[in-house]
Sequence to fold (207 residues):
Amino acid sequence: MSWFMATFYDRSFAKTEEAGLREWRRALIEPLAGQVLEIGTGTGLNLPHYTAAVDRLVLTEPDQHMRSKLEPKIADLTGPDTVELVDAGAGDLPFEDDTFDAVVSTLVLCSVPDPAAALAEARRVLKPGGRLAYLEHVAAIEKPNRHKWQRRIEPVWKRVAGNCHLTRQTDQSIVAAGFELEEERRESIRKMPPFVRISVRGTAISP
Fold:
């Protein structure tokens, strides 16, 4: 299944990217500088938005099929001085405490085995005052009928979509992990299926 997802991931997101998701990624990532870690990089849809202000970019991706799609894009990347690809999951990052100026998570925390552990790790490796830049789809709690369908669909969806959960309230998890919200927007992702459309994006500070 991971081979299938890696093969068709970019193609399945093409219309969504054109409808505004690409711009959301750019606005989130372009301001970042210094040492930056991206967790769950996937096929690398964020890569074009990193600038020369990033001295060191570390990408983690535990899935070998995703890494096979990611590696050619890294070879073509301009901007950051140093780019590293690490085979590591978000819940067990092989980095020292207080290493990074920013951690990036886009459409990742829905599928990690333990989002609380992933966020704890992100906070651990961030320097004090470092930023978590995130874009995640979440439970549609403001739309009760849609939320009901998310709960119904989720057991099957997780199996066919790489452990993607439809009912996680990631915005609340970020606060529960001890981050201080800097800015956040809750908005519908255009051209996505209705049950994965509600999203949150923004930045949160590691105290």
About this structure: The mean pLDDT is 95. Helices lie at 2-29, 64-75, 115-125, 144-160, 170-176. The longest strand covers residues 126-137.
